[in-house]
Design brief:
Helices cover 49% and strands 36% of the residues. With 178 residues, it is an alpha+beta fold.
Length: 178
């Protein structure tokens, strides 16, 4: 009887040790899994923080763009990359439209040439429904631009990114009306 009882104890002890070994292994795997999840969460938080920082920079950049534009400051041309792609679609009465595509160098010259006329006419814009979205090459700023002089709304899109540590416009898509 003692032999059978000792056998049960040995089996019970073996099962207990086996259970403890499995429990320990599961706990260890669970801790490793938790550590991995925490590392991924930290990376995502860091990535999210970095994304938020880039969006915040784009918001400040756009605020500066609006301020320079509405004060007719020639420094606005410095916000454009030398390689910027500028596209403006002009809509005419009767439904016709024309898309003009300019290299940055010509666009900068054009801005500087029209600033005095725009200033004399008080041709300012206001912006609403502005959104910022992270794109593969930078930030896309989409906004509804209102011409205060001509009293119409049109969509306006800027793509901005850092060049040499400074935020620059590398593409502008605009609409105007005659």
């Amino acid at each position: 009887m003692l032999k059978i009882f000792t056998g049960f104890i040995a089996i019970g002890l073996s099962l207990t040790l086996g259970f403890l070994s499995i429990s320990y292994s599961l706990a260890k795997e669970s801790k490793e899994l938790k550590d991995t999840k925490n590392a991924i969460a930290d990376k995502n938080d860091s990535s999210s923080s970095s994304k938020n920082q880039i969006i915040a920079e784009a918001k400040k950049f756009f605020e500066r763009y609006v301020a320079l534009s509405n004060s007719f400051d020639p420094a606005i041309v410095d916000l454009y990359s030398d390689n910027a792609d500028i596209q403006s679609t002009r809509y005419y009465v009767g439904g016709k439209s024309r898309t003009l595509r300019l290299p940055a160098s010509e666009y900068k010259k054009m801005i500087l040439a029209v600033l005095p006329t725009a200033k004399a006419a008080k041709d300012t814009d206001s912006y609403s429904k502005t959104t910022y979205s992270l794109e593969s090459k930078g930030v896309k700023i989409t906004t509804l631009r209102h011409s205060n002089l001509k009293n119409y709304d049109s969509w306006f899109v800027l793509f901005v990114r850092k060049e040499g540590g400074v935020m620059k416009i590398y593409q502008e898509l605009s609409q105007t009306r005659s």
